[in-house]
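I'll show a record.
***
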Amino acid sequence: MYCTYRSHFTPSYSYSYPSYGYGSLYGYGYGNSGSYYSSYYRSRSRRRKNYWDRYTDMCNRWRRNRRDRRSPSPPKPETPPLPTIPEVPTEELVKELHVKDVDLHIKENTEKHRTDEYACTKDRKVDGKPESAELVVRRGDTIKMTITFDRPYSKEKNDLKLCFSLGKNPKPSRGTQVVFDIDESGTKKFKPDKWGATLQSKSGNNATILVHIPANCIIGEWNFYVKTFSEGKDKEGKEKTLIRQFEPDDDIIILFNPWCKEDGVYMATEKLLDEYICNESGAVWRGNGYQIGAKPWNFGQFGEGILDICLLLVTSGFDDDRLKHMSDPVRVSRMIAKMVNSSDDNGVLTGNWSGDYTGGTPPGKWAGSYKILTQWRESGPVKFGQCWVFSCVTTTVCRALGIPCRTVTNFSSAHDTDQTNCIEKFFQRIGNEDEPIDHLNNDSVWNFHVWNEVWMARPDLKPSFPYGWQVIDATPQETSEGVYTCGPCPVAAVRKGLCMTNYDTAFVFSEVNADKVHWRVHSGDRLERIELFKHSVGKKISTKTPTGKPFSYRRIPNGKRDDHAEANRDDVTLAYKPAEGTEEERETVMQAHRTARFPVPETYKEKEKIKPVEFHLNHDNSVMIGGKMLVELTAKNNGRYERKIPVVAITAFPQGYTGNYGEMFHRKHFMGGATLKPGEEKSFGTVMDPEEYLDKLKEQASISIVATAYVEGIDDEEEQTLRKEHTVRFRRPDLEVEGPDEVRNGDCATFVVSFTNPLDRPLTACNMSMESAGFVDLDDLRCLDVQPKGEFRQEFRLDAIKPKKTAAVYFSFDCKEIPDISGSTDIRIT
């Protein structure tokens, strides 16, 4: 099955982008907060408004909204003057060839380069002011431009050169300045990794040329000018060359090109790019391995201003001397993972897992990336995010820049803090029970964790892993090379347990395939292995099925929303590890253990002991929040002797999705336990009422059920200690969103959003958030309380602004008692 998974992406191509070394990435000057604003505006030199004025505008906005600025804004440097052109006698001006205008054929070029979805490629109004279209293209392909002169262009008497530049101090040695001739034969063949231009046609005063952008070009906004050379004479009658320079008002934005074989992000299966580049709407899976739910999300990578913001985000991490690294998708993707969180700099999102979101927006309230990114542009780091928010914003940035990307969820995701490639938990014996030693238990297993996969070549890892899906993770969990980032890490290397592979492969391996080890600590710090759990980490690794269509709950097979979510879920677990229980999977684990930075040799020394008494913990995984939950522990004696079980207990704790426990709210201790004859089975049951757990629940409405038991030893059958932990997530209601099937662009559509409160208490502090790639987004809206067992129902009228085959509309409802309720629908905009 794994081979089938890989075969979909097997390309036949060569990549040729510059190699600048793959040592410590941060040794090459990943930026800090001091270079945050200036590096973007050094490279984004639109002449419609001086870019240093734009820089000052943004800094002033941030200053008004942030009293805790780390440092004052850097002084505004003087804008370098344009090259001066010496005065030319009037008689010579007649002989010079002057450029009057350059037509960039924006519509034709953007359709060819598959960039016509970007809002900036169209004439439009922004904040009530008219904005003209910009040219956005992809590297590794040609663009067409028509130059208009003051007289017909003559091949015999005139020559043309083009100059492209990027950044504040462009230099050829940095790859940020190039000057090249325009071939006039019209037959020149372009080299994939070289700039070039050829004359395509002439008509009157117009000359149409094709410009080739190399497949290893630095991404960003390039300015350019045209130089003309003409024959002339000086005052003494001697022949000389007359040079004129014309700089258009428009720049050219150049992005990665996954459709180009020579580009490092090339994806051979073109149909998949409909999803991983072009789809603005998707979903992220959350919950736990037993109860999975999909949250719809608006990526919105083509929205107004989003491309500008994404370029700002990346360039703010590189200083002007290192813009050349923005030609390399490996470096760019690693920088994106660094800059989407604000832990080391003024990145996009501030993480918060405390449950207290005073001064910011609760993570579950977001419905898409658009509001997050635009808020960051206006006022700096956005509060607050958790793993799925970090991941979805990362998907937006990668797709906007042309890197194929998808959001991936790992259920029962391990967090290894000490680089042992094991998840260890330590206990001490108190009476007949093993109690956890909290200060030693730093490793954890999250109910779920969300990261990203990006598709690209890895020339630094040839021949082992030359291309494929790479994990990047913007959630600030552990530092990598001194900063909070992760990846790109080859998924294929994780599957083989090759934990020395760059970057952060050991950490990702532990997330999906580490063994859990329970240790009993004796006096003198002697360790005794209690139990080894081989198959409890890395479950149902999920991403959206690559249909190229928006995710929404509008059309539900058989009327079941869960069926619809499951039908759109693509399980990629076997890409990360062999099937559980196979010899290949065990060899992968042992390979990872051998290459761990700090391995624990005692982990696998002892053989697993046969346990005469078999225990099973049972419960319902689909209880709606507000309902009762029955929990049952069964014990069966498979041994040869009668066994006494003096200690049996079932406890329950509220649990955050990162694995942290709250205060215990339920405990059932079965006094006297039981005595089991050989072959006998006994059950221990308890019921949890909503009055016990409702006020204790954390986000995601998860609880941890812990069953403990002690079996006395007899003759050659040793004593037995049981500790079973199950995570259960209460179901929550979904928003039902009703809307029309179709609406005309510019018209208004009516949507009705509703759900039923499942609790015997009112829902308070209610508010609604909405996002869509095809409609005008609404500001967050406060809503009335929802009565016990009552229905919430509200009507929204939205203006359609973008013709699309199918546009998804996402709503998110938040309240104190049941946060993060979401729903969506889709609609055709004609």
